[in-house]
Specification:
The chain is an alpha/beta fold. It has 8 helices and 7 strands. The two termini are about 45 Å apart.
Length: about 210
Amino acid sequence: MVPLVLDLSGRRVVIFGGGAVGARKASFFAGGADVMAVSRSFIPEFDALPVEKVVRDLEGASDRDLAGLLEGAFLAVAATDDPAINDRIGKICRASGIHFNNARGIPGDVVLPAVSRGKHHALAITTFGKAPGMARFLRERLEEEYPGLDPMIEVVERLRAALKGRVMDQGGRQAVIARVLADRDVWEAVSGGQDQAWNLVEGRYLHDR
């Protein structure tokens, strides 16, 4: 598998299942794609999600019915508690060229990672379905270790711009940035905001350039 970041704006993602797993999968895509959720019933968590809800009894749905629900889909997620239904959906997706993620059953061609998102970043971690709990654990550890990622990204962006007029070779600029990122004082300062961290960076790394 190849990890990618995709722009799904305007793409249809179909989620099969209205339970807790379906809600989690729908939340993953909500706001970044045109999401439709299909189930006989939906837990209350779906009410807060910007998704289209289609009430349908999937146990009695024929392959033709499922194919109709998948029409126009770029990606589908089978999140019902019945592996047999999930696998039927996956079979139709493979025949139709629709990307597929299976929460329970035969794996599809898409794995949903544990994701930490911010204003300027997204961190995605996966064990390719072998140990999802470990992916969540690593995501949580990174969030705990680096709580100031967004302001630090802003500091580094500001530093890159400042270095372009002071350090002519790219290798030299990269070396300065690497030193800043390894500086624990800067990471501590960034907890007080971008400006506080920038003052430290400017005084420590740019004063003689």
